[in-house]
Amino acid sequence: MLLSFAVFLLLLLLGMPVVFAIGIGGLVFFLTQPGLQLTMPVQLALAETQNFSLLAIPTFILASNLMNELGVTRRLLRFAHVATGFMRGGLAQVSVLLGFLMGGVSGSAIADASMQARLLGPEMVRRGYSRGFIAALQGFSGLLAVAIPPSIGLILYGSIGQVSIGQLFAGGIGVGVLLAAVYMLTVALLARSRGYLPEAAPPTAKEVGAALRESFFAVLFPFLLLAALRFGVFVPSEVGAAAVVYALLVGLIYRELSLERVNRALAHSVRDVGMVALLIAMTAVLSYGMKWEMFPQQVSAFLLEAVQNPQVALLLILLALLVLGTVLDSTVMIILLTPILVPAAKALGIDLVYFGVLMVMTCAVGLLTPPVGLSMYSVCSVMGCGIGEYVREGWPLLAATLLVLLLVYLFPGVVLFLPRLLFGGGV
Length: 427
Fold this sequence. Notes:
The chain has 22 helices and no strands. By secondary structure, it is mostly helical. It comes from Thermus thermophilus (strain ATCC BAA-163 / DSM 7039 / HB27).
């Protein structure tokens, strides 16, 4: 197994796409095990894509792309502008609130960050904001999509780890609200020190009501998901399909439903689902090697033996995830590490909903840190700024993110309050 990991890391360092590095690393394990048939890697890869619980992923991705194509984003932007444009650093505050609202539409941090940079970036440049600050702000605002339902990261963790996706969604909302509040406070402090001005006068109740009415069906989306899961109307795979129907109905209500836009959403969805499915398939090959060598049990035994305190063990796991996130994509980390860490967390007596939300959010931080931050490269490319300027301008937002993770680690109730209220307990 060590040889497989060594090959995987070497291929990554040589610049090979991570999905192929994982697949080749897994194949090396089978080549070094004479007792295992070489037909097994193909069977494992195909079998993993037939996992019924993973059916939620393509349906939620399609629902998200439909919502984006059918006029939802523009309405959410208007509501965010009305609700926060009067604050100091108005457009920056709009970015944070839009990231929070868009989290309930797309579920993808990279997609949200890129979209917001394109939507708000040019106007923010004209208003005097630096390109590095805009890139960092849009990148970290996109991170809110990881916490707010329907988060693809939480669906992956729940599907692979056999943890209630409904409870994970509910737990993510608490973290998302706290993260958005801390980002808005950080932006307010930076705006005061840099002289960023409000964009508009405080709105009247009538203006807020009109903006909310216009975006009502989009804002309602994550709450409908939770309600459907809580009351057993749908299982996760079914609620994804229901979300597709809901997205089409929203497009019909907004009178923006057209064959061209649906085709565009389908094309984007095929690309996105293909990427995730290939990752899941290749990871199944490497994961089998870890199960064969009883790696999850060894990790659990080591943590139980070396660290008696579950909170200390959890802290060590989170620190390791932060370091790994600098070189691995968050989706890869979730798919690869969930089968290892869920048994360890269970053995340590850590609530799996609390652990899952914290793990997924910690993995996602790597999207915004050098040297392999995919969101970071995406927003820097859109804004035309260098990584150095991005890091220099974005460190307060990184500090704010780490502060929120620390608060969630210290106070599990941030995650568990809503799941216990709605579902009656954690897993």
